[in-house]
Amino acid sequence: MLKKLSVGAWITVLAALMVLVSLIVYSANVSGEGYFQGKSVSGMTLWLILAVVLLLAAIALKMLSLKGTAASCADLVSGLCQIGAPVLVALSLINLISSRVEGLGFIYFSNADVIKEVQTPANLASGSGAIAGMVIMGIALALCIIAAFCSLRKKAQ
Question: In the predicted model, is pLDDT for residue 157 greater than 60?
Answer without folding.
Answer: no
